[in-house]
Every structure is written in structure tokens, then in C-alpha cells.
Amino acid sequence: MRPTPTITAGLLAFGAYFCTYAFRKPFTAAEFSQAGAVLGVLDFKTTLVVAQVFGYALSKFIGIRVISELNRVGRERFFVALILVAELALVLFGLVGDHWSAPLWLFLNGLPLGLIWGVVFSYLEGRRTTEILGAMLAVSFIVSSGAVKTVGSLLLDEVSPFWMPALTGALFFLPLLGCIYGLSRMTPPDRRDIAARTLRKPMTREERRTLVRRLGPGLVAILALYVLITALRDIRDNFAAELWTDLGYGDTPEIFTLAELPVALLTLVPLFIGYRIRSNRRALRYYHGLFTGAAALILLATGAFSLGALTGGPWMVAIGLGLYLAYVPLNAIYFDRLIGAFRQAATAGFLIYLADAGGYAGSILVLLLRLAAPDIPWLGFLTGLAYLVGTVTLGLGLYAWGALRRRLPVRDAPAPLPSTLHPTTL
Predict the structure, then answer these.
(1) What pTM was estimated for this model as a whole?
(2) Is 351 within 8 Å of 338 (Cβ atoms)?
(3) Residue 114 to residues 18, 74, 176, 353: CA-CA distances in angstroms?
(4) Are the CB atoms for 168 and 155 separated by under 8 Å?
(5) CB 406: neighbour CB atoms within 10 A?
(6) What are phi and psi for residue 260, nearest 5 degrees?
(7) Domain boundaries, the chain
(8) Which of 236, 229, 261 lies closest to 397, judged by CA?
(9) Tell me: the pLDDT tens digits for 281-338?
(10) Residues near 40 by Cβ (< 8 Å), separated by ≥ 6?
(11) CATH architecture, domain defined by 6-197+210-405
């Protein structure tokens, strides 16, 4: 089989995850202001967001095992099955409408979707070009969230907010199938990839425990950093409609897409710089520097906005850039490099899902805290959270590098090559 060109592989991964967002994010474009409170207490949309995030978070805990043990056999069928379950949940959400059971279907929608990132990234990890492929994949979830919300906003003129999510997903189903087929034709990592980035293979429970022990407190700090970044990113993303309305853009549906395009393009630049760093050890140091710079950007931009030196639109773009400069590497590339630096046969998907499980649990906690203080405007809530996240992640990024550096091998060395490439190798 001829090797799959890097650009082709990246575009297939981009397309697959872009289309996946059409089954997850469109409902957040609606405000559901006419819907009644759930059980007479909770705001309807906030409850929907909490329910979906809870399903997504639970799937991340499930994925710690499922994704770490994933192999090439049956991967495409698993992908399609997850999407079909997510779409069925949206159809049931449309059928029940403004009913107390509506959050249940959003929970069931999030449950399968939380596994898809690990499935897509399993095609890309452990390669010398993983940075490029990961960068192209990352652009999908930066751009797609705004894009599918724009599509959803336009569909609201034709259908009810309860049927809009299912219709949006249906529009993207066939393109998604094409991308999945293309991914299924990708060639696995070759021997040079394995020498540079270490063998990737399904992991046993004991192998997972061994890797966590080797990484130690540095991994704990990185996981804590990721929890905070994810919580801030989810508030900005899930309540974008309310935030943009508060900032004076309520009648501009294209703002969802326009605000994320510069974030996506600017996020790509440091990722391509990281690709040029051949040493896994130096690459880790570079990414920790990126985390520190991202936290500083969030703090500076929010301070300027609070002082009136920065208007709302540029502030949303600036904190988005700060968030994604940390969030994107931690979703894929950073853990791929971490495994390469420690030279242990493993899968980056395990560490990604370990981080995601904590990240989305943190998002649920922040949403519940927000429910406890309903009188605080979303704009004020986001501002306060940005100050907290920026300050704490600045310290965590620095501490994590110091802790990991003491455990890293002194020098990079080629990983040992297997005598044969097993068919379950990622």
C-alpha cells in the first residue's frame, strides 16, 4: 500500500472531526428562551449544556480504557456506530421538545461523541508528521464549533430549536462517511516513525499504571492545568450566543465563525514551529513555554478588557487564542511527544483521555457553580474565570516542566524497533 500523503491525511482527519461537531454543538446556537425551567428550578439551556457535558465527561472516563485498547480492526465500524447513536439521540430530543426528559437525550448524545476524538487521533499519532496532522485536526474543532453554530442559527429560521440539531447533523452525515472511508485507507506508522516517536500499541491495565507512575507529579500538574483550560474553553464555547449578545453582536450569526477564524490560523503557527523540533525533550520544553505564554495572554487580554483598553470582540478573540494555544497541544501533540520522550511503547490516546476525563469533570463543576449564582451575568462570570484560570495555569505550566524534566532520560535516543509490525499497531 502506498503511503498516504501528509496533507491528504490531515484533511481527512480535519473533515471527520469537523463533521462530528455538527452532531454536538449546533444546539448551543439557540437560547431556548421560551422553554420552561427544568423541574421548575434550572434554566433550560444551562441544563441541556450540563447534561451533554456530563455525557461527554463520562465517555472520557470510559475512553481511558476503550481508547487505550483500541486497535485497527473494526475501528471504522465503531466510528460509524458512535455517530449513529449520537444522531438518534438528537432525533429523540426533537421529538420530546420542551419536556423534562429533553436533557436525557442530550446526555445520550454526548456519551458516544466523547470517544470520537480518540478514534480520529489514533490514525495520526506516533508519526514524524504528527505535529502537522495534529495541527490540521485541531483547526477542525476551533473552526467547526463556530461554523456549525452558524449553520444551526440559519436553520432556526426554518425549523424549531428542538429539531435544528438533528437536521444539522443529518446535513453532515454523508461527508463524514467519506472522511471515515479515507481514514481507513491510511497506512500505519513505518519504522522511521517508530524510531522517532516510539511504538504505539494497545495498552494493558498494568502498562497504563506503569506509565502514570513514571510521569509522576508532572503529569498531575498537567492534568490540573488541562482541567482549568477546558472549563474556561467550554464556558466561552457553550454560551457563546449569550456572550456575543451581551457584547452587542446578538443579530450577527456569522460572528460565531468570524471570531474563530483568526484563532485557528494563529494557533497553527506555533504548532508548525513545534514540528520543526526533532528532539522530543526540546519539544516538551517548547510546549511548556507555550502554555506559559498562553496563560499570560489570557491575563493580559482580560485585564485590558476590564480597563476598557480592549473592546469585547478583540477580547473574545484574544482569550480564545490563549485558550487554544494550550488546549490544542494538550489534546494531541503534547502527549504524543511525552510518550516519545520517555520512550515507552504506549498510546497517546490513553493520556489524552485521562486528561479529558478530568477536564470535562471540571467543566461540569464550573457549570454547577454558575447555577449556584444565577444572578451573575455570563460576561462577568467569564471575566472572573479568565483571571482565575490564567493565574493558576501560569504556575502549573512552570511546575510541571520542572517535575517532568527531572524524570526524563538525559538524551533523546531512537526507540527500539519491533521485529515485525503487528496488525493491531496504531
Answers:
(1) 0.78
(2) yes
(3) 14, 18, 16, 9
(4) yes
(5) 10
(6) -90, -20
(7) 6-197+210-405
(8) 229
(9) 899 999 999 999 999 999 999 999 999 999 988 999 999 999 999 998 988 789 989 9
(10) none
(11) Up-down Bundle (1.20)
